[in-house]
Amino acid sequence: MIALEWGLAVWAVLAGLGLMLIWWLVRRPRPVVRLLVSLTVRLVYRLRLRGADHIPAHGAALVVCNHVSFMDALVIGGASRRPLRFLMDKPIYDSPWLNWLFRLVGAIPVESERHDPGNVRRALHEVSRALSDGEVVMLFPEGRLTPDGEIHDFRRGLELILARDPVPVIPAGLSGLWGSWTSHANGPALSGRPRRFRARVALHFGEQHPAEWATRAMLERRVRELKAEADCWAEPAVEEMLERP
Questions:
Q1: What does the alpha-carbon distance between residue 106 and residue 237 come to, in Å, rounded to a whole number?
Q2: Whose CA is closest to 210, among 176, 155, 166, 174?
């Protein structure tokens, strides 16, 4: 009888915690999702994080980072002290399995003008609205996954955003995901299979830059510097991964 009572008490507590989580998820979905993503990222990777306090506790800001793999947004979003709105390719946003999650976290889909005339303008308007509401927006100024592990030229969309909304910019450098199955290192991303668990990943945030100083060239240079710093910690894991058959 005592064992039965204890069992019922445990189930009651678990049910209560489950209801609290559901209530919290309904009322404040983005902080909950950020917490769950953060826990998942730290379970899957050995993450070294530096400079996360450069993201302001309040007010609008823009985070820019190099683009290595399809996991980048999750790593950066989970590492941020605040929920992020991030731009992403519309075909990925429209994924039947993950669209509900992207909608929940407020991702902003963007498609090329060639495929959808006017989409870029609509995406930039949504970015402007998010910044006007005091949110933090993240984007990858290269506009695509790196095909060779290196940082490529930043596109002018970054300057268009800052011309419309002159908010502080926080550069970031990400390393350790090149060579994973979510990067283009061993063929098209997601075409293979996961090859390593608990890889070393480094994410370094730099100091804020006011919009009037944050030119495209300067931010690209700063992201390259931050990535080089991150490489010093994460590169051994990448080499080991690429050496595996």
A1: 32
A2: 166
| 8-state DSSP, 197 | S
- Could you read off the pLDDT of 150-192 as tens digits, one per residue? 999 999 889 999 999 999 999 999 999 998 888 998 888 877 7
Q: What are the residue boundaries of the structural domains of the chain, listed by start?
A: 45-243
What is the three-class DSSP state of 15? helix
The number of residues in the chain equals 245
Top-level class of domain 45-243? alpha beta
The CA–CA distances, whole Å, from 231 to 53, 62, 196, 235 equal 20, 23, 18, 5
Calpha distance 143→156 (Å, rounded): 10
The strands making up 84-89's β-sheet, listed across from edge to edge, are 45-50, 199-205, 169-175, 61-65, 136-139, 84-89, 108-110
Q: How many CB atoms lie within 10 A of CB 44?
A: 16
Whole-model pTM: value is: 0.82
| Gyration radius of the chain over CA positions | 20
Q: What is the pLDDT of residue 21?
A: 53
Instruction: Convert the pLDDT of each residue in 31-69 to its tens digit.
Output: 777 777 888 888 889 999 999 999 999 999 999 999 999
